Amino acid sequence: MNILIRNLTRSVTEKELFLLFQPFGEIKSYNIVTDETRGQSKGFGFVEMPERDEASAAIKALNGKLVRGQKIRVKVTSKTSIALPDRPRNEQPERFEGRQPKQDKRPAAKNDTRKTTGRPTGAARGSKRPSTPRPARKKRK
Q1: Cα-only R_g, the chain
Q2: What is residue 77's three-state secondary structure?
Q3: Where are the alpha helices (DSSP H) in 24-99?
Q4: Beta pairing class for 29-34 and 66-67
Q5: Which residue, among 53, 46, 33, 32, has the nearest Cα to 74 in the 3D structure?
Q6: CB contact at 8 A, 79 and 46
Q7: Terminus-to-terminus CA distance in the chain, angstroms?
Q8: What does pTM read for this prediction?
Q9: Which of 55, 59, 60, 69 could join 49 in a cystine, given CB atoms 3.0 to 4.6 angstroms apart?
Q10: DSSP state, 31?
Q11: Tens of pLDDT along the chain (141 residues)?
């Protein structure tokens, strides 16, 4: 059974994760997910236990337990392994092959490189008010 452990402090090691689950039974695999660029923990990890009863007991006992001052969250997950993409991230998926990106059909002004939005100049984004300031209100007596 695959178990997800969340809300781990960044300083928890895989050895500590192993020692946390070891009293409940056999552990097939365990790991803490780390950021590739910095090598720092992302705050969650996975443990795989072959026996369902042992895994259920571990989940019940460890969910909400304080580990290094933080309550961890432990639950069942369907994760078997993290699948890496076969293609680079910036490449478009196959379903978009043959399609062209949408073109802006509005004519551009000769010397204007800014995009026009149709709002009055100086109006706040999302504002329906004109850019001219309102007159000050009179105070009530």
Answers
A1: 28
A2: strand
A3: 52-62
A4: unpaired
A5: 46
A6: yes
A7: 73
A8: 0.55
A9: 55
A10: E
A11: 999 999 999 999 999 999 999 999 999 999 999 998 888 999 999 999 999 999 999 999 999 999 999 999 999 987 554 444 454 555 555 555 566 666 666 665 555 555 555 555 555 566 665 566 667 777 777
* Two tokens, residue 9: 């402090």
Of residues 72, 57, 54, 49, the one with CA closest to residue 3: 49
Q: Which of 1.10.455.10, 3.40.1350.10, 3.10.450.50, 3.30.70.330 is the CATH number of 2-77?
A: 3.30.70.330
Which residue ranges make up each domain of the chain? Answer: 2-77
Q: Residue 5: name the closest of 32, 39, 41 by CA.
A: 32
Residue whose token pair is 């895994």: 55
Q: What is the arrangement of strands in the sheet containing 73-77, beginning at the earlier edge strand?
A: 29-34, 41-48, 2-6, 73-77
Cβ atoms of 8 and 41 closer than 8 Å: yes
| Max CA separation in the chain (angstroms) | 80
Give, in order, the Cα–Cα distances in Å from 69 to each of 9, 10, 11, 65.
Answer: 8, 12, 11, 9
Place of tokens 């090691």: 13
